[in-house]
Amino acid sequence: MAAPHQYEPRTAADLRFEPDDGLRRELHDGVVHVVPPPSDDHAWRTGVVCDVLRASAPDDVYLLQNVGVHTGLRRLYVPDLTVVYQGTPYHDFGYDPGGVLLVVEVVSPSSVTLDRRAKPGVYAEQGVPFFWRVDDGPRLQAFRLDPASGEYVPATDLGPRESGEAAAPWPVHVDTAELVMPHKRP
Hints:
Elements: E1 24-28, E2 31-35, H1 40-54, E3 61-65, E4 68-70, E5 76-77, E6 81-85, E7 90-91, E8 94-95, E9 100-106, H2 112-125, E10 130-135, E11 139-146, E12 151-158, E13 163-166, E14 172-175
């Protein structure tokens, strides 16, 4: 009789053994999750948010798409957009969370539960000061970390075809109508 297979939880360093096939991989409690390529709407929304932030970003940060953030011993999340301070240590496919200023998750059908529930809690646990989520509609929800509770609290909520100011991590003007690809706008 063959011995039952025992799974060894993975670490971020173990991702070096994964194929270099262009697919994004995240690590959730030691389990590797392969993330499908984004849709055109998803990619557009990520690009628009990046452009809005980059237009007035301070000189001491980098805005990076699809880079890892270490969120625990056996967790490596890959936000759609990460704002990280220059000089933040990068190793084993990701940045240390102490140097991450903002993470942006654009919700996809394959990431609804992770982007709305799991990831915000973990990013808050790791002390990431700001979290933005772009959801269906499209809608932009910006959150700031409340030091007293250790949880994210709402800072800005812009629904479909609304525009307004997001004050943090630095002031920017956001028009959610721009989050829709031009040929798909009403």
